[in-house]
Amino acid sequence: MREKVEKVLDRDVKPLLKSHGGSVKLISVSEDGVVKVALTGACYGCPMARMTLVGLVERTLKAKIPEVKKVIG
What we know:
Helix content is 45%, strand content 26%. By secondary structure, the chain is an alpha+beta fold.
């Protein structure tokens, strides 16, 4: 599943974050569907980071990969 997550992040999430000066780094994917990521660049420490994590990263991963249950930062 890690490869699927990396592919979705690269194709669907990173281009959007890059347009705002940020990015996301995949830390881990657990067997029970929990994906751990780190927001980087302008996204790191941004007041809207939590909304980005849930609203963009988690929503996109869940839509594309049903096995993803939760995304944590």
